[in-house]
Amino acid sequence: MFMSNDHTVNGLSIETLLINLVSNILFILGIIGNILGLLIFSSSRRSWQISSIYACLATCSSITNLLCLIRYVSILHSATRQPFLQFAEQHRWACKFYEFSFSFRVISAWITLLWMFERLLCVSTELRSFFNRWNASKLKFIIPLMIVAMIVGAVVGLPVYMFEPQICVEKINNGTKLIARGCCRVSPNASVQWQLYFEQVSFGRNHYTVRCLFSELIPAGTIILINGYIIYHLRTYRRFHQTSSFKTNRNQSRTTTSWMNIVLILHSSLFLTSLFSHIAGHIMNLEAHETWWVSLAVVINCSLNFYLYCLSGKAFRSEIRRFVQRFETRVFYQ
């Protein structure tokens, strides 16, 4: 649900200019970084050989980051916000697409969880033996994908189906004045129960609670738990490796696995930061998904992942060099 007012940027014009400037910079960095990440993860032979699921999820994460970046920059930037919202107010399909675009964020959250679950299986012998014992290696991702599809349907599917553009009456000046604005809300033909389900902004049996749980609270809690276990495993393995007096012929594979884990920890930590900003926003302002600083946190999350990967260590930078070398070979020597 949204209304086409200027509540996302309520400050002075200098604040609007700064937000626009930051949006432009992050948009450029995000487009470049996510495209490079998409190309590197999809073409990294070592990653695909060690774990094709890891490489696939990393590629999907770059795609959803691109979609989220375009969606939230369009809302955040003053030059595109009003045309974007007004277009959704006037066209039924645009209203439904606006609601559907929130699924990019939900899908991104659960791709990150599946990505971390894949790493958790790699570092946890107990989980691997559990799935091997029941011969359920295929089900370990089919079931989560089915769960994600049901979550996206519950969080996004219902609004897409039931919302449509209409004229809404809003109270301003402490309720002393009424104005008519365009908005995208649940159809007036819907029952009273459905209208209350979507319009109540409090924790209870309503869409607001479902949205908070499955797009923010559950992903945040799960990321913290899995991240903690992976970090504990990495520290334990490093301590064992330092005290060990022998070397194995699998050091190269373990080095690759190590940077894959570090990349995922950095990615999930940045994502967790944006989730915490959203959760804090809900505490301070119930309509947190409409505030400019929450949108800015999402844009930062979608823009800077690749550059954090570059800081993860020499292994990822080596992957970049290999990608550049393969690109130069194909372009200039064929």
Could you provide a short overview of the structure?
One of its GO terms (cellular component) is membrane. This protein is 76% helix and 7% strand. With 334 residues, the chain is mainly alpha-helical.
List keywords for this structure.
single chain; disordered N terminus; three-stranded antiparallel β-sheet; globular; mainly alpha; 7% strand; 334 residues
Molecular structure report:
The chain crosses the membrane at residues 17-41, 53-73, 102-121, 141-163, 217-237, 258-280, 292-312. It is found in: Membrane. Residues 33-309 form the G-protein coupled receptors family 1 profile domain. The structure is a single chain. By secondary structure, the chain is mainly alpha-helical. The chain has a single domain (8-161, 220-332), classed as Up-down Bundle (Rhopdopsin 7-helix transmembrane proteins), CATH 1.20.1070. It is built from 14 helices and 3 strands. A 3-stranded antiparallel sheet has the order 1-3-2. Mean pLDDT is 76; it is low at 1-11 and 245-253.
Output the radius of gyration.
Answer: 23 Å
Strand fraction? 5-15%
Terminal CA distance: 53 Å
Portion of residues within helices: over 70%
Strand order in space, largest sheet = 1-3-2
User: What structural class results from the helix and strand content?
Assistant: mainly alpha
Please give the count of helices.
14
Q: Based on DSSP secondary structure assignment, what is the total number of beta strands? A: 3
**Could you say what the CATH topology is called?**
Rhopdopsin 7-helix transmembrane proteins
The CATH superfamily turns out to be Rhodopsin 7-helix transmembrane proteins
